[in-house]
Amino acid sequence: MNYIGCGLGLRPTYINEILEGQSKSDWFEVITENLFTLPGFGRGQFFKKVLKVRESYPLALHGVSLNIGSSDPLSSAYITELKNLIQIIEPCWVSDHLCWTGVSGINLHDLLPLPYTLETIHHVVAKIEKVQNVIQQPLVLENVSSYFDYKASEMSEWEFISEITKRSGCRLLLDVNNVFVSAYNQGFNAEDFFRTIPAAMVQQIHLAGPSDMGTHMIDTHDTPIRDDVWIYYEKFINMVGPQNTLIERDGRFPTLLEIETEVLRAKSICKGVKLRNGGLRDSEISI
User: Most CB atoms closer than 10 Å: which of 46, 106, 127, 249?
Assistant: First the structure.
C-alpha cells in the first residue's frame, strides 16, 4: 500500500476553494458516476474542474453503482465507461462497494448488504475478476453499513470480506464509520472486525459521521465524525500503521476550513504513529 496521506471527498461545495489553493488535503476522492457520459449521468462543468484538481493532486475514483453483488450481470456499458474514465483521470486507485444496488436493471440508489455465504463469495469473486481483467488493476471494495443481518448468513462480515479479498486479490476500503454503524445496529463487537480483517489488503480508510436515531444509526455522512469512530480509527492505525484516509461529507456541509479540521486530525494520528515507529521522515507527512 502506497501511503499518500489524508484527504477529502471532492464535492462541488468545495471545489472552487480547492482550485484556489485553500485546501490542506493531500488527495481527493471523486464519485465515479458524476464523471460518466452515460444516460442519467452528466459531466458538465464539474468534470472540467475535476481535471484541473487532478493537475495538482492525486485523485481516487469511488463508485456507487457497480452493483457487484447483484444477481444481475455486470453492465458492460458501465465497465467500458469506467475503463475510459480511468484512462483520462489516471486515478491512484478505483473503488466501489461490496454490496448490491439494484436488480432487474433497476438502480435502487442504495448500498444494500449481502448475505455472508459461500455461494455469495463465489458469485462476487467471479464478478470482481471480470472487472479487474477490464480495468487492469485491483478493484478496491468498501464494507457497507447495515441495519440487519440475513438469516442465511453462514459467517461474520469480517470472515466474508477476508475470503473475498483472498480469492479475488481485490483490495479493501475500510469504512470505520460503517463498522461502527453496523456494530451498533446489530449488536456485534466492532473490535472483532478490526482485529480480523486482512489489514495488509487495506488500500484506504473512510471516516464519516452517522445520524443517531436513538434505536439505530444511519450512515448519512452529514454530521461530524463521532468520538467512537475516532477511537476505533486511532486503535486501528496504532495496530497497522498509517493508512490512506478520506473524510466523507455529503450533507449539511460545513466550511472547507471546518471539514478539514477532521482531515488534519487524521493526519496527526497517522504522523504520530509513523514517527513513533521510526517510519516516514517528518517531512514526508505534512500537517
Answer: 249
